[in-house]
Amino acid sequence: METFEADWLALREPADRRARDGELAARLCAAWRRHGWTRVVDLGSGTGANLRYLAPRLPPGQRWTLVDHDPRHVNRLSRLDAPPGVDAVSAVSRDLSADGLAILDGADLATASALLDLVSEAWLAGLVRRCANAGCGAYFALTYDGEVRWMTESGAEWRSDGDPDDGFVWTAVNRHQQGDKGFGPALGPAAAPIAAHLFHEAGYRTWLAGSGWRVEAGERRLAARLVEGWAAAAAELRPDAADRVAAWAARRRAALARGSFRVTVGHRDLLALPGDAE
Ligand SMILES: C[S@@+](CC[C@H](N)C(=O)[O-])C[C@H]1O[C@@H](n2cnc3c(N)ncnc32)[C@H](O)[C@@H]1O
After folding, report:
1. Which pLDDT tens digit goes with each residue over 225-253?
2. Where is pLDDT greater, at 218 or 196?
3. Stretch 85-98: mean pLDDT, rounded?
4. Looking at the DSSP assignment, which residues form a beta bridge with residue 235?
Protein backbone atom coordinates (compact mmCIF):
# COMPACT_ATOMS: atom_id res chain seq x y z
CA MET A 1 0.00 0.00 0.00
CA GLU A 2 1.32 3.42 -0.98
CA THR A 3 1.40 5.43 2.25
CA PHE A 4 1.68 9.15 2.90
CA GLU A 5 2.66 10.18 6.41
CA ALA A 6 0.49 12.78 8.13
CA ASP A 7 3.55 14.92 8.93
CA TRP A 8 4.45 15.08 5.22
CA LEU A 9 0.87 16.07 4.34
CA ALA A 10 0.98 18.78 7.04
CA LEU A 11 4.31 20.07 5.71
CA ARG A 12 3.02 20.41 2.17
CA GLU A 13 -0.46 21.80 2.97
CA PRO A 14 0.56 25.51 3.20
CA ALA A 15 2.48 25.28 -0.12
CA ASP A 16 -0.54 23.56 -1.67
CA ARG A 17 -2.95 26.24 -0.46
CA ARG A 18 -0.82 29.05 -1.87
CA ALA A 19 -0.31 27.26 -5.16
CA ARG A 20 -3.91 26.39 -6.09
CA ASP A 21 -5.42 28.36 -8.91
CA GLY A 22 -7.98 30.72 -7.38
CA GLU A 23 -9.80 31.39 -10.66
CA LEU A 24 -10.47 27.72 -11.21
CA ALA A 25 -11.78 27.37 -7.65
CA ALA A 26 -14.01 30.43 -8.21
CA ARG A 27 -15.35 28.91 -11.44
CA LEU A 28 -16.13 25.69 -9.56
CA CYS A 29 -17.92 27.65 -6.82
CA ALA A 30 -20.01 29.50 -9.42
CA ALA A 31 -21.08 26.21 -11.06
CA TRP A 32 -21.84 24.70 -7.63
CA ARG A 33 -24.04 27.68 -6.72
CA ARG A 34 -25.78 27.77 -10.11
CA HIS A 35 -26.73 24.11 -9.93
CA GLY A 36 -27.55 23.94 -6.23
CA TRP A 37 -25.01 21.16 -5.70
CA THR A 38 -24.54 19.78 -2.19
CA ARG A 39 -22.83 16.35 -2.35
CA VAL A 40 -19.07 16.13 -2.80
CA VAL A 41 -16.83 13.05 -2.67
CA ASP A 42 -13.13 13.62 -1.96
CA LEU A 43 -10.91 10.78 -3.19
CA GLY A 44 -7.66 10.02 -1.33
CA SER A 45 -8.43 12.57 1.41
CA GLY A 46 -5.33 12.05 3.57
CA THR A 47 -5.92 14.28 6.61
CA GLY A 48 -8.60 16.40 4.88
CA ALA A 49 -6.61 19.19 3.16
CA ASN A 50 -9.02 19.42 0.23
CA LEU A 51 -12.00 19.84 2.59
CA ARG A 52 -10.11 22.54 4.51
CA TYR A 53 -9.39 24.44 1.29
CA LEU A 54 -12.73 24.08 -0.49
CA ALA A 55 -15.36 24.16 2.29
CA PRO A 56 -14.94 27.87 3.14
CA ARG A 57 -15.18 28.76 -0.56
CA LEU A 58 -18.30 26.77 -1.42
CA PRO A 59 -21.83 27.87 -0.43
CA PRO A 60 -23.26 26.43 2.82
CA GLY A 61 -25.20 23.18 2.93
CA GLN A 62 -22.30 20.97 1.77
CA ARG A 63 -22.29 17.24 2.44
CA TRP A 64 -18.80 15.70 2.20
CA THR A 65 -17.71 12.09 1.89
CA LEU A 66 -13.98 11.64 2.51
CA VAL A 67 -12.41 8.44 1.16
CA ASP A 68 -9.02 6.91 1.90
CA HIS A 69 -7.54 3.43 2.27
CA ASP A 70 -5.06 4.28 5.02
CA PRO A 71 -6.70 3.38 8.36
CA ARG A 72 -4.67 6.06 10.17
CA HIS A 73 -6.10 8.77 7.90
CA VAL A 74 -9.64 7.36 8.01
CA ASN A 75 -9.53 7.26 11.81
CA ARG A 76 -8.46 10.90 11.91
CA LEU A 77 -11.00 11.95 9.25
CA SER A 78 -13.82 10.28 11.16
CA ARG A 79 -13.05 12.56 14.12
CA LEU A 80 -13.03 15.81 12.09
CA ASP A 81 -15.57 18.45 13.08
CA ALA A 82 -17.63 19.74 10.17
CA PRO A 83 -16.22 23.16 9.22
CA PRO A 84 -18.63 26.12 8.93
CA GLY A 85 -20.81 25.72 5.83
CA VAL A 86 -20.66 21.94 5.98
CA ASP A 87 -23.80 20.10 7.10
CA ALA A 88 -22.26 16.61 7.15
CA VAL A 89 -18.84 14.95 6.84
CA SER A 90 -18.37 11.22 6.70
CA ALA A 91 -15.15 9.24 6.40
CA VAL A 92 -15.12 6.04 4.37
CA SER A 93 -12.37 3.43 4.31
CA ARG A 94 -12.02 2.19 0.75
CA ASP A 95 -9.36 1.01 -1.66
CA LEU A 96 -10.07 3.17 -4.70
CA SER A 97 -7.97 0.94 -6.92
CA ALA A 98 -10.46 -1.91 -6.42
CA ASP A 99 -14.21 -1.24 -6.35
CA GLY A 100 -14.08 2.12 -4.61
CA LEU A 101 -15.54 4.27 -7.37
CA ALA A 102 -19.16 3.20 -6.79
CA ILE A 103 -18.97 5.82 -4.05
CA LEU A 104 -19.37 8.47 -6.76
CA ASP A 105 -22.94 7.44 -7.58
CA GLY A 106 -25.18 10.30 -6.47
CA ALA A 107 -22.31 12.80 -6.14
CA ASP A 108 -22.57 16.34 -7.52
CA LEU A 109 -18.80 16.78 -7.46
CA ALA A 110 -15.87 14.37 -7.51
CA THR A 111 -12.70 15.93 -6.20
CA ALA A 112 -9.18 15.07 -5.05
CA SER A 113 -5.94 16.84 -4.33
CA ALA A 114 -2.50 15.43 -5.07
CA LEU A 115 -3.92 12.12 -6.29
CA LEU A 116 -4.07 11.95 -10.08
CA ASP A 117 -0.31 11.53 -10.65
CA LEU A 118 -0.54 8.24 -8.72
CA VAL A 119 -3.11 6.61 -10.99
CA SER A 120 -2.95 4.70 -14.26
CA GLU A 121 -4.64 5.71 -17.49
CA ALA A 122 -7.03 2.73 -17.27
CA TRP A 123 -8.10 3.73 -13.76
CA LEU A 124 -8.47 7.35 -14.83
CA ALA A 125 -10.66 6.33 -17.77
CA GLY A 126 -12.87 4.40 -15.29
CA LEU A 127 -13.06 7.48 -13.07
CA VAL A 128 -14.14 9.67 -16.00
CA ARG A 129 -16.81 7.10 -16.98
CA ARG A 130 -18.12 7.06 -13.40
CA CYS A 131 -18.27 10.86 -13.30
CA ALA A 132 -20.03 10.99 -16.67
CA ASN A 133 -22.57 8.37 -15.52
CA ALA A 134 -23.20 10.31 -12.31
CA GLY A 135 -23.36 13.57 -14.31
CA CYS A 136 -21.12 15.17 -11.70
CA GLY A 137 -18.47 17.87 -11.94
CA ALA A 138 -14.80 17.09 -11.30
CA TYR A 139 -12.10 19.16 -9.63
CA PHE A 140 -8.65 17.59 -9.29
CA ALA A 141 -6.07 19.91 -7.78
CA LEU A 142 -2.30 19.78 -7.44
CA THR A 143 -1.27 17.07 -9.88
CA TYR A 144 2.53 17.02 -10.20
CA ASP A 145 3.64 18.00 -13.73
CA GLY A 146 7.34 17.06 -13.68
CA GLU A 147 8.80 20.60 -13.89
CA VAL A 148 11.25 21.46 -11.12
CA ARG A 149 13.49 24.55 -11.11
CA TRP A 150 16.02 25.88 -8.65
CA MET A 151 16.72 29.59 -8.36
CA THR A 152 19.09 31.64 -6.28
CA GLU A 153 18.94 35.31 -5.31
CA SER A 154 21.50 37.46 -6.99
CA GLY A 155 21.25 41.13 -6.03
CA ALA A 156 17.56 41.98 -6.36
CA GLU A 157 16.94 39.21 -8.90
CA TRP A 158 16.24 35.51 -8.89
CA ARG A 159 18.48 33.58 -11.27
CA SER A 160 18.37 30.00 -12.40
CA ASP A 161 20.63 27.83 -10.21
CA GLY A 162 21.23 24.75 -12.32
CA ASP A 163 23.26 21.78 -11.12
CA PRO A 164 24.94 19.57 -13.74
CA ASP A 165 23.04 16.56 -12.39
CA ASP A 166 19.57 18.16 -12.09
CA GLY A 167 18.53 16.70 -15.46
CA PHE A 168 19.81 13.26 -14.50
CA VAL A 169 17.94 13.34 -11.19
CA TRP A 170 14.64 14.71 -12.61
CA THR A 171 14.66 12.13 -15.38
CA ALA A 172 15.03 9.38 -12.79
CA VAL A 173 12.45 10.95 -10.45
CA ASN A 174 9.89 11.39 -13.22
CA ARG A 175 10.37 7.79 -14.35
CA HIS A 176 9.99 6.68 -10.73
CA GLN A 177 6.71 8.62 -10.67
CA GLN A 178 5.47 6.28 -13.38
CA GLY A 179 5.91 3.18 -11.24
CA ASP A 180 2.92 1.33 -9.82
CA LYS A 181 1.44 3.24 -6.88
CA GLY A 182 -1.35 0.72 -6.43
CA PHE A 183 -3.45 1.67 -9.48
CA GLY A 184 -1.28 0.12 -12.21
CA PRO A 185 1.50 2.01 -14.01
CA ALA A 186 1.14 5.60 -12.80
CA LEU A 187 0.68 8.49 -15.22
CA GLY A 188 2.95 10.68 -13.10
CA PRO A 189 3.57 14.09 -14.73
CA ALA A 190 1.32 13.24 -17.73
CA ALA A 191 -1.80 12.76 -15.60
CA ALA A 192 -3.42 16.22 -15.69
CA PRO A 193 -3.47 16.76 -19.49
CA ILE A 194 -4.58 13.15 -20.04
CA ALA A 195 -7.40 13.62 -17.52
CA ALA A 196 -8.44 16.84 -19.28
CA HIS A 197 -8.47 15.00 -22.61
CA LEU A 198 -10.55 12.11 -21.25
CA PHE A 199 -13.10 14.46 -19.69
CA HIS A 200 -13.28 16.45 -22.93
CA GLU A 201 -13.93 13.23 -24.88
CA ALA A 202 -16.71 12.42 -22.41
CA GLY A 203 -18.46 15.71 -23.26
CA TYR A 204 -17.12 17.87 -20.44
CA ARG A 205 -15.84 21.43 -20.62
CA THR A 206 -12.37 21.46 -19.09
CA TRP A 207 -9.94 24.01 -17.66
CA LEU A 208 -6.32 23.33 -16.71
CA ALA A 209 -4.32 25.84 -14.69
CA GLY A 210 -0.82 25.91 -13.23
CA SER A 211 -0.61 25.46 -9.45
CA GLY A 212 3.14 25.19 -8.96
CA TRP A 213 4.75 25.37 -5.54
CA ARG A 214 7.22 28.11 -4.80
CA VAL A 215 9.28 26.94 -1.85
CA GLU A 216 11.70 29.47 -0.33
CA ALA A 217 13.98 29.79 2.70
CA GLY A 218 11.02 30.14 5.11
CA GLU A 219 10.03 26.57 4.24
CA ARG A 220 13.42 24.93 4.51
CA ARG A 221 11.99 21.80 6.14
CA LEU A 222 9.73 21.24 3.15
CA ALA A 223 12.63 21.88 0.73
CA ALA A 224 14.84 19.46 2.68
CA ARG A 225 12.14 16.76 2.56
CA LEU A 226 11.85 17.29 -1.18
CA VAL A 227 15.58 16.83 -1.68
CA GLU A 228 15.57 13.64 0.42
CA GLY A 229 12.50 12.28 -1.39
CA TRP A 230 13.93 13.02 -4.84
CA ALA A 231 17.31 11.51 -3.92
CA ALA A 232 15.66 8.35 -2.58
CA ALA A 233 13.48 7.97 -5.69
CA ALA A 234 16.40 8.58 -8.08
CA ALA A 235 18.68 6.15 -6.21
CA GLU A 236 15.94 3.50 -6.18
CA LEU A 237 15.50 3.80 -9.92
CA ARG A 238 19.23 4.09 -10.67
CA PRO A 239 21.09 1.99 -8.05
CA ASP A 240 24.03 1.96 -10.45
CA ALA A 241 24.32 5.74 -9.96
CA ALA A 242 23.81 5.88 -6.18
CA ASP A 243 27.05 7.84 -5.63
CA ARG A 244 26.14 10.38 -8.28
CA VAL A 245 22.70 10.89 -6.73
CA ALA A 246 24.21 11.17 -3.22
CA ALA A 247 26.66 13.83 -4.45
CA TRP A 248 23.79 15.77 -6.07
CA ALA A 249 21.79 15.60 -2.82
CA ALA A 250 24.82 16.84 -0.83
CA ARG A 251 25.19 19.85 -3.16
CA ARG A 252 21.48 20.62 -2.93
CA ARG A 253 21.54 20.33 0.89
CA ALA A 254 24.45 22.80 0.89
CA ALA A 255 22.39 25.17 -1.29
CA LEU A 256 19.56 24.96 1.26
CA ALA A 257 21.98 25.66 4.09
CA ARG A 258 23.18 28.84 2.31
CA GLY A 259 19.59 30.02 2.76
CA SER A 260 18.93 31.94 -0.44
CA PHE A 261 16.98 29.56 -2.64
CA ARG A 262 13.70 29.14 -4.44
CA VAL A 263 12.50 25.78 -5.70
CA THR A 264 9.50 25.70 -7.97
CA VAL A 265 7.67 22.40 -8.36
CA GLY A 266 5.10 22.32 -11.14
CA HIS A 267 1.53 21.19 -10.52
CA ARG A 268 -1.74 21.50 -12.41
CA ASP A 269 -5.33 21.98 -11.28
CA LEU A 270 -8.11 20.59 -13.43
CA LEU A 271 -11.78 21.54 -13.49
CA ALA A 272 -14.19 19.55 -15.66
CA LEU A 273 -17.87 20.47 -15.82
CA PRO A 274 -20.57 18.44 -17.55
CA GLY A 275 -21.78 20.07 -20.75
CA ASP A 276 -24.91 21.43 -19.07
CA ALA A 277 -23.13 22.71 -15.94
CA GLU A 278 -21.37 25.75 -17.38
C1 LIG B 1 -0.50 12.58 -1.82
S2 LIG B 1 -1.71 12.09 -0.68
C3 LIG B 1 -2.87 13.45 -0.80
C4 LIG B 1 -3.73 13.58 0.43
C5 LIG B 1 -4.66 14.79 0.46
N6 LIG B 1 -5.63 14.75 -0.63
C7 LIG B 1 -3.88 16.08 0.44
O8 LIG B 1 -4.00 16.85 -0.52
O9 LIG B 1 -3.14 16.31 1.41
C10 LIG B 1 -2.59 10.77 -1.53
C11 LIG B 1 -3.68 10.14 -0.67
O12 LIG B 1 -4.31 9.12 -1.45
C13 LIG B 1 -4.52 7.99 -0.62
N14 LIG B 1 -4.53 6.80 -1.48
C15 LIG B 1 -3.51 6.31 -2.22
N16 LIG B 1 -3.89 5.18 -2.84
C17 LIG B 1 -5.18 4.94 -2.49
C18 LIG B 1 -6.12 3.92 -2.77
N19 LIG B 1 -5.80 2.88 -3.56
N20 LIG B 1 -7.36 4.00 -2.22
C21 LIG B 1 -7.69 5.04 -1.40
N22 LIG B 1 -6.84 6.04 -1.08
C23 LIG B 1 -5.60 5.98 -1.61
C24 LIG B 1 -3.33 8.00 0.35
O25 LIG B 1 -3.59 7.25 1.52
C26 LIG B 1 -3.17 9.50 0.60
O27 LIG B 1 -3.93 9.91 1.69
Report:
1. 999 999 999 999 999 999 999 999 999 99
2. 196
3. 96
4. none
In the chain, the number of structural domains is 1
pLDDT higher than 90, residue 2: no
Report if residue 169 sits inside a domain: yes
Residue 72 lies in a domain: yes
CA of 191 to the centre of ligand 1 (A): 15
Rounded distance between C-alpha atoms, residue 144 and residue 215, angstroms: 15
Are 267 and 189 spatial neighbours (Cβ–Cβ below 8 Å)?
no
* Full residue range of the structural domain in which residue 43 is found: 6-277
Q: What is the CATH number of the domain that holds 194?
A: 3.40.50.150
Identify the pLDDT of residue 273.
Answer: 98
Query: Dihedral, CA atoms, 11, 12, 18, 21, nearest 10 degrees?
Result: -160
Is residue 96 one of the residues assigned to a domain? yes
Q: Does any domain span residue 1?
A: no
- Ligand 1: residues with CB < 6 A are 2, 4, 9, 44-46, 49-50, 68-70, 73, 95-97, 100, 113-115, 118, 182
Is the pLDDT assigned to residue 108 strictly greater than 90? Answer: yes
